[in-house]
Amino acid sequence: MTTNTINITEAIDNSQVRSFQIGVFILCGLCLIMDGFDVQAWGYVAPSLFTEWGIASAAGRVASVTLVGVLIGSLLFSMLADLIGRRPVLIGATFYFSVLTLITAQVTTLDQLLAIRFIGGLGLGAIMPNAVALVSEYSPKRSRVTAMLVVSNGFTIGAAVAGFVATFLIPRFGWRSVFYFGGTVPLVIGLIMFAALPESLQFLTLKKRGAGVIGRWLARAEPSVVVTPGTVFMVNEEKKGGVPLITLFHDGRAVGTLLLWAMQFLNLINLYMLSTWLPTIARGMGMATTAALMVGTMFQLGGVIGTIAIGKPIDKYGFFGVLTACFAGAAVMIALIGQPGLTASVLYVVVFLTGFGIFAGQAGNNAAAA
Fold first, then answer.
1. Phi/psi at 345 (nearest 5 deg)?
2. Whole-angstrom distance, CA of residue 207 vs CA of residue 85
3. CB atoms within 10 A of CB 219
4. For the chain, does the N or the C end have fewer beta carbons within 10 angstroms?
5. Ordered alpha helix ranges (H), 86-175
6. In 3D, which of 327, 332, 335 has the Cα closest to residue 361?
7. Cα–Cα distance between 51 and 284 in angstroms, integer?
């Protein structure tokens, strides 16, 4: 009897982007939108919260402990996903950070806020690496970079939406309403993901899970494949042991890994510093609450447009030149933010262009790493 062997990697690489893949991209994108919303909402909430509590601003401390949680969560849950799959990690993390965001709306002291934001950050950190990886694994090779850029832009869209939502809710219902919104929506998204999100085909193949399950998901991604009861599935990746973090330094990857880490570290300093502090800085410049919140929103909007805009240039010119232009332009714009005498309209433009360079560069970093 002839054995029918199907290479999962080649089948996906040569497939068309069909409604099934689009559905996967939308679910991952929605998850990332609320991830971005909950991570960045703090920068919009901080001025009102500390005014209500009558204490000196501790926005930097709260933002930092959240991001420490995100760092730990991204490392731990990425390795956990390698063991149990991306689907359960993404769904579990979505429900987890949803509940923690709702709890955030109930805090009454700074210590409670610090603890809850750190614990919640663990779940938030699981979303980006696993969602982007799942999008990559279900994308044809020719459109993979574009798909990852578009879907990862969900994080930035969520951060921008947080600005609009905060601008509407805070003056009417107070800062707690932002966290009620940010915690309720992911509960709905999590339920939809539970019903419709597939598992990684690469993971299922490497772990030698049921051929029927693999065949069913593969047939939805590429209907032309013929799956029989005796079909053997393979991928262009070997199952390896050891700690995944350590393997990033094997097989000549050490220099590339360190350079990618340096790019991510330096760019994320700017991204999170400005996301956290721009509304507070604008308030300190004498701007009204709504205008100050819009400064932060313009930063995120620039990122949304920038992340979409760099897809075709990267396909045409490669990562090096595009990322260099993004970072160089962002450096100039960041320097301009600090110049005295800027009018509100000029500040909006400068902050928009800053977000364009920083977020576009970050999305390019993520795609290059993948």
1. -65, -40
2. 9
3. 14
4. N
5. 86-104, 110-124, 127-137, 144-173
6. 327
7. 13
CB 78 within 8 A of CB 211: no
Rounded to whole angstroms, how far apart are CA atoms 274 and 351? 9
Residue 98 and residue 100: Cα distance in Å, rounded? 6
What is the DSSP annotation of 233-279? EE-SS----S-HHHHTTSTT-HHHHHHHHHHHHHHHHHHHHHHHHHH
Structure tokens at 254: 């050490």
Structure tokens at 370: 């993948």
pLDDT tens digits, one per residue of 308-337: 888 888 888 888 899 999 999 999 999 998
Parallel, antiparallel, or unpaired for β 232-234 and 5-7?
Answer: parallel
Does residue 296 contact residue 66 with C-beta atoms inside 8 Å?
no
Q: Are 329 and 359 in contact (CB under 8 A)?
A: no
**Tokens linked to 208:** 């030698």
Nearest to 192 by CA among 29, 73, 76: 29
For residue range 200-227, list pLDDT tens digits in order: 888 888 877 777 788 888 888 888 877 7
Q: Which of 224, 230, 231, 235 is nearest to 201 (CA)?
A: 235
pTM of the predicted structure, to 2 decimals: 0.79
Long-range contacts of 291-295 (CB under 8 A, 24+ apart): 291/344, 292/47, 293/44, 293/163, 293/166, 293/167, 293/170, 294/163, 294/167, 294/348, 295/347, 295/348, 295/351
In degrees, to the nearest 5, what angle opens at C-alpha 297 toward C-alphas 296 and 302?
105
- Of 199, 216, 223, residue with least CA distance to 11: 223
For 358, the enclosing helix (H) or strand (E) is helix 344-369
